[in-house]
Amino acid sequence: MDPKLDALQQRLGYRFREPAHLVRALTHRSFGADHNERLEFLGDAVLALAVSALLFGRFGGSDEGDLTRVRAHLVREDSLHRAALALGLPDAMRLSEGEARGGGAQRPSILADAVEALIGATFVDGGWEAAQGVVRRLFGDVILATDAESWSKDAKTELQEWLQARKFAVPAYRIVATRGQAHAQTFEVECAVPALGLAERGEGRSRRGAEQEAARRMLDALRASDRPGGPLRH
User: Under DSSP, is residue 61 helix (H, G, I), strand (E, B) or coil?
Assistant: First the structure.
């Protein structure tokens, strides 16, 4: 076997029974018809499940939202790109001459896709336990070294990003009511998204706290509406 592939398997912590699976995982579509996109498709799903299982075990006290945020950070392109560089994938990729001359072996998207393809290939070659082991080696230290809160965003920030990603204007906040004496006031704030005709209210012991609660309720409403069959889906 090619020494580069032998070294890659050592770094991966898995030796393929069928080397053809490894070769295919490293083959970009520019190189030929037997490329890695089907393995990438499979690897994406295997990666999501394996990371979810690791997070479920690591963060026993975290809710679904926190776990989803951490997983999103771990499986996004830049995280996969770093994993690809740690594995030395640029030296192992199979690319067309044109793609190679254009710097394809260093392109983050190509390398991130190859990591997913490698995970898919490991699953095909050795099953779930083998694939889970590879994911644990690639991401286990990161998961152990972090805490869910460090990945969290406050509700106002998350709402603004949700809206901006869908080309909507940022929400508007206004105080609807203030109750109680000056030293123990309760604020009621409305969060409105005029473009969608939506408004939600939240209460808190400070204006900021009330705004966060209103933003959280707006996020919940928007996510429910954005599901298949919801009013934001046509």
Answer: coil
